[in-house]
Protein 1
Amino acid sequence: NAGVTQTPKFQVLKTGQSMTLQCAQDMNHNSMYWYRQDPGMGLRLIYYSASEGTTDKGEVPNGYNVSRLNKREFSLRLESAAPSQTSVYFCASRFLAGVTDTQYFGPGTRLTVL
Amino acid sequence: AQKVTQAQTEISVVEKEDVTLDCVYETRDTTYYLFWYKQPPSGELVFLIRRNSFDEQNEISGRYSWNFQKSTSSFNFTITASQVVDSAVYFCALSEAMIQGGSEKLVFGKGTKLTVNP
């Protein structure tokens, strides 16, 4: 049981390049999330997926796309990276049913866009 | 719209002192969840607690305690007898209650950086 895994851990891109951040969870959780963390800003929700096959925008979706490929995987794509997207990206999963609420975050991906 | 405010950006204490981290939230929902997370210097985010809006009982877990007051829309976190290992950034978060097939967005505060000095 690996929890939530993210790849890569670090990435440097040039402006205009594209890339996909991968996230997978092996806990059979329904909901998955992508956040970005910037100094002094806390975590801001980019996109989330309440269940397989559904995705919704969060607070800061511009410049990103997501895919909930199956229940395990939720990827985040930057089509044309910009320096403003330099950040630490966290994926999270959550299981919520009645009084049960368990959630885990991945280790994060540190992205630098030059 | 939901909002979480952590007014304390940074707090510094000496080991063994008690410290309280403040969290004030705004929501129009009548049912919601409140959370605290810890982010140590290593960077991972650790889930500490969830509190339902209809349960105002205070909770204690070892040296950690949480005080939830709906009347003041606050969910404060106290560490008793702080230790150096408590040094981290602590985030408060708010989530609306899940409706079947509905959203489960988490809104985070900007965090409070706690430094516990030996």
Note: The first strand of chain A starts at residue 4 and ends at 7.
Protein 2
Amino acid sequence: DGGITQSPKYLFRKEGQNVTLSCEQNLNHDAMYWYRQDPGQGLRLIYYSQIVNDFQKGDIAEGYSVSREKKESFPLTVTSAQKNPTAFYLCASRTGSGYGYTFGSGTRLTVV
Amino acid sequence: AQSVTQLDSQVPVFEEAPVELRCNYSSSVSVYLFWYVQYPNQGLQLLLKYLSGSTLVKGINGFEAEFNKSQTSFHLRKPSVHISDTAEYFCAVSVNQGAQKLVFGQGTRLTINP
């Protein structure tokens, strides 16, 4: 079955370390998104990409970086510049012509 | 820019009672509207969406929502809830142009009591 795979499900890092969250999709979707979820704040857009080798900042991009070298993959790096990295991170993808967003099951990052 | 306000952060109801989760949005252009459900430590699952046409939209698990353009609302309803409906619910909007980014509300936690 097609879908989005986020790994790992839980991730622990020490403060000051960079960490990369994986997002892979086999849906042949053009667009991919990264959202951050905090209690009581809903989901906020970090970065998005509509085609390979191109991406744009979302509303809260500071302290994060992404790449889109392959259509299937959109990894997110949480850098040491992100002041409050502990959160639940969700990856999503969408076909080019429709509204069929598909979400991954998320990665819970805890920085200690 | 678009924004979404979910008017209740928590809604407790008894099993088999009806429920309404309220959502208001703001936008200077026409929008598309969505309701998603999230179970603990999982991703989001689409309940229903409004793109055009009939303002009453039916979704999965017995949920429905009504688009009200004059009141800029998209409230979610279910006539009789079950314990399994306990989850967090998110209202979201997007526009049919550009990156079609989803803008989410803050979420409503629905708790079903036996």
Note: Residues 11 and 110 of chain B are 5 Å apart (CA to CA).
